[in-house]
Amino acid sequence: MGAEVSTAETEEVHAHDDDHHHELPFWKKYVFSTDHKIIGYQYAITALIFLFVGFYLMMVMRWSIAHPDKELPGILAAFLNKSWLNDQGMVTGDLYNMFGAMHGTIMVFLGIVPLAFGAFGNFVTPLQIGAPDMAFPRLNMASYWFYFLGGVVMLASFMLPSGAAEAGWTMYSPLATTAQLDEPNLWWTGQTFWLFGMVFLISSSLLGAVNFITTIINLRCRGMTWMRMPFFVWAMLVTGFLLLLAFPPLEVAAIMQIMDRLAGASFFIPTGLNFSGAGSVDAGLLDVAGGGSPLLYQHLFWFLAHPEVYVLILPAIAIVGEILPNNIRRPVWGYKSMVYAVMVLGFLAFIVWAHHMYITGMGNVVSTFFQATTVIISIPSVILLTCLFISLWGGSIRFTVPMLWALAFLPMFGIGGLTGLPLAFNLIDLHLHDTYYVIAHFHYVVAPGTIFGLFAGIYYWFPKATGRMMNNTLGHLHFWPSLIAMNGIFMPMFVQGMAGFHRRWYDGGANYDEITSRIIFDEGSFFANLFKDGQAIEMIDLNVFMTFFVWVLCIAQFPFIFNFFYSIFKGRKADSDNPWRATTLEWSAPNKPPHGNFVTEPVAYRGPYEYSVKGHATDYTPQFERGDDGVILGEEDPPAAAQNDGH
Amino acid sequence: MQTLGIINEMLGLPEVASEHGGMVDHLLEMVHWLMLVLLIGWSAFFVYCLARFRTKKNPKADYHGVQGHASHHIEIAVVVVEAVLLLGFAFPLWAQRSTDYPSGPDVVRVRAVAEQYKWTMHYPGPDNKFGLSKSDLISGGNPLGIDWEDINAKDDFLYTELVLPVNRECIVTVTSKDVIHNLSLHPMRMQQDAIPGSVSDMWFKPISTGRWQTICGQLCGAGHGGMVGYMEVMEEKDFDAWYKENVPSAKEEKLPEADPEKSDKAS
User: Fold this and answer.
1) Range of the domain at B52
2) Residue B40 has what pLDDT?
């Protein structure tokens, strides 16, 4: 009840605001804004830029993998410090490690999470629950600026003499702690910057998480009962809890590693490290107190990083869960199962982390526990995916551009999820761990999985944010090549991984000729004639094939970039506030929603996906449409249960 | 189990050379079958729905959609299959791997010590006991810091490659001098992190002879991609001869062995 009162009050205040037309100065309206929508846009633009930065790093890496003996092409070399390349202009092991570490960091912490949770969460959640804004608008602004600061620190680390961090995105100690120790000032090294950057990013996520949880619990509008919440909001709630509970251990780990690097502590450094001098540390005994545990860092890291996987994937499932019913014109199948599945998933996500550490050697009990939980977590995931698939049955499917992305998400995420199954088993993992099989597995989940979901969301909510539609043809030009290229890049990785190709080889495995030169297509065979002038095709040649598709994927993003900016100003105007004929509350707000979001008080009269209800004039019955069944719990219509109690 | 290796073979799984490796491949094959069935099932349903229920074909959507409990039955089937894989195969196999360590005089023992960017193998000699090693004794002439005064160290010797006999149980104790490395033996279906400050054992029984590359499977610095090692599995009598050849006579002053012929190609 309290929530409702406060909602009403806030709205009055906003109405009051509108009357007086306080015109905020530009920097307050668009830069240091407390409006959840503006913050959402800020998150979206920043995160998209970071996605392209991460993509660029990957292009350099993939060039090195496919052509370790060739000069880096000028178009890629133009954006990096030439002194990082070797004399012949090729990528070095150091550069590869730096870009590898930063590709992972940027994609996960600066690209996808901010876009999924920061941008979509911020923009859509309050609109869908009928709230005028987030519960703590200033905290929301702080969250963005912490994120921005973290991003600046990460980018700035590329400008340092040491370059950016280079110990893998996992930053395992002692490698991470001892990397770049040859620099005169340890504060000014990429490794140290990475740690400080992470502290900012984690703080940002924590502020966001608190805000989302509070908003969803307290600011739902009249009639928006728990089971009338769109699935998107449920997923955001669970994601909020994941961030809130999983990130503090990594924050602690980052601060402890900072202490190890700068203050002479040894949380993660054991006694008696003795370097050979081949790396960046001088030969001889390392001068530290010692007594620390490298495994402690791994546990802290993966206690975050596994739930983080679900932070990456849940918003995408949530977006697909909104777009799918809208474009099949019928309710999602098994809404309640999905809600419970996502909660179970959120809980289980916290007790599977050590499956990333099977190779550290594990006793029977611990291994049994983590194998069991890891296999069990596949069940709620299968339920979510099955519900989405089954929803299609009996629908009337419109192939709009957002729907194409959402549909492609299903099999792509399916492949990613299924290939996680063998990795759950300890013994199999001892063969496949850190091979390209694993790389393909998690990229299928996150790249053609999550990123496709996010693109779907951009095309879908674009008219609400701008009042204009994105161009359809350009959308198709973006979608089809992206779909083909993604599979061209990641599918061959399964084959390489089974053969034993490991990740983080800057030369793509040229040094491991015994493993990588196995022949897959014989001399003179069809494919050999087609691709290699009749010479036998070896495992390692797949690298060239995959890298070719990276260029295709890159080119396929240009229609999107153009479409995005063109459509903001020149796109076709949306025909109404509800161009997709959708049912959830955000479509009752005017396009380009004003400060305070809603012109009339939003009320949820029914569940979120009432499409094709028998006897209704249109094939959609919005949550906000008052009808005969317009029962609002605890409102004017006395609840049926209360009446029954009297008898 | 070889008859049921179609998917493994298609995906190019390399040949197995350890006794338990066959079981690993078998488990992998079964999991891949489960995945394949689910993938084909989902894909067929997906494609059928897209064709059958497109707006043109089906202009009016059905509010209720799928009726019945087929999906529940599928869910339950998946749960059952996963339970069988776990309880029937994964748990017992790992229990056997992690608790039934081989012991006795016949077991071959090696310490594999990693550093940036190479491996040094430490063999205990005929007494099957490793001499003490201390990190402050490490020097150019004593890469593992072995205390040669230690009685157990008298017959120890070092080698750059992992040499093992066929058909005998082997325990490889993995550790590191500097950062985390990983000894990855693909033909044996084994990987073990080399974590500085701790020692971890891996054991297996080679069943075929051959020479393979070993992989460093954990990022260890700029030279990680070139940290190629070699593993050789010999006939037992060849191994014994090789072992004898390398054991220093008790009185001789100890010097670390340099690799006799094969130079590693990494650099």
Assistant:
1) 2-99
2) 95
Does the beta-carbon distance from B224 to A428 stay under 8 Å?
no
| B41 neighbourhood in chain A, CB within 8 Å | none
* Domain-located, residue B261: no
Task: Identify the band that residue B43 occupies on the pLDDT scale cut at 50, 70 and 90.
Answer: very high
Note whether B32 and B87 are same-domain residues: yes
**Region A295-303 average pLDDT:** 95
User: Do the Cβ atoms of B135 and A273 come within 8 Å?
Assistant: yes
B91: chain A residues, CB-CB within 8 Å: 368, 371
H or E element that contains A423 = helix A420-424
Which is higher by pLDDT, B6 or A101?
A: A101
Could you tell me which of A392, A181, A365 has the C-alpha nearest to residue A286? A181
Candidate from B58, B61, B90 with C-beta closest to A371: B90
Tally the C-alpha atoms within 13 A of residue A152's C-alpha that lie toward its C-beta.
7
Q: Which of A61, A274, A419 to substitute to test the interface with B, most B CBs within 10 Å?
A: A274
Q: What is the pLDDT of residues A269-293, one digit of tens each?
A: 999 899 988 888 888 888 888 899 9
Question: Looking at the structure, do residues B234 and B123 belong to the same domain, yes or no?
Answer: yes
Q: Per the domain annotation, does B260 fall within a domain?
A: no
> How far lies B171's CA from each of B94, B164, B212, B224, in Å?
16, 10, 18, 25
What's the pLDDT at A633? 58
**Domain total for chain B?**
2
Quick one: pLDDT band at residue A258, thresholds 50, 70, 90?
very high
State the pLDDT at residue B152: 92
B32 in A contact zone (CB under 8 Å): yes
State the number of CA atoms in the 13 A half-sphere of A44 facing the CB: 21
**Are both B118 and B203 inside the same structural domain?**
yes
Give how far Cα A206 sits from Cα of A184, A200, A292, A325, B179, Å: 34, 10, 28, 32, 32
Angle at A418 between CA A416 and CA A422, to 5 degrees: 110
In a domain, B262, yes or no: no
Residue B72 belongs to domain with CATH number: 1.10.287
Domain ranges of chain A: 2-271+287-587
At A25 the pLDDT is 85
Residues 6+ apart with CB under 8 A from B186: A431, A500, A515, B14, B212, B215
Same-domain check for residues B81 and B116? no
**Residue B114 and residue B219 in one domain:** yes
Check whether residue B116 and residue B240 sit in a common domain: yes
Is B137 part of the contact surface with chain A (CB cutoff 8 Å)?
no
Q: CA nearest B16 in A: which residue?
A: A431
Burial of B128 (0-12, 13-18, 19+ CB in 10 A): middle
Q: Which CATH class is domain A2-271+287-587?
A: mainly alpha
pLDDT range class, residue B263, cuts 50, 70, 90: very low
- Tell me, yes or no, whether B235 lies in a domain: yes
**Other Cβ atoms within 10 Å of A271 Cβ, number:** 15
Cβ <8 Å between A431 and B78 = no
Which of B99, B123, B138 is the last residue before a domain boundary? B99
Q: What is the mean pLDDT of residues A98-109?
A: 96
Least CB–CB distance from A410: residue in B27, B46, B197: B46
Phi-psi region of A2 (alpha: psi -120 to 50; beta: other; left: phi over 0): alpha
Q: Nearest Cβ partner of B197 from A92, A294, A619?
A: A294
pLDDT at A1: 35
With contacts defined as CB-CB under 8 Å, which chain B residues touch A511?
Answer: 225-226, 228, 265-266
Minimum mean pLDDT range among A171-185, A247-261, B65-79 = B65-79
Q: Read off the pLDDT of residues A442-459 as tens digits, 9 standing for 90 and up.
A: 999 999 999 999 999 999
A524 pLDDT band (50/70/90 cuts)? confident
pLDDT for position A629: 58
Q: How many CB atoms lie within 10 A of CB A612?
A: 23
Please judge whether B64 and A394 are an interchain contact, meaning their C-beta atoms are less than 8 angstroms apart: yes
Is B112 in the A-facing interface, judged by CB distances under 8 Å? no
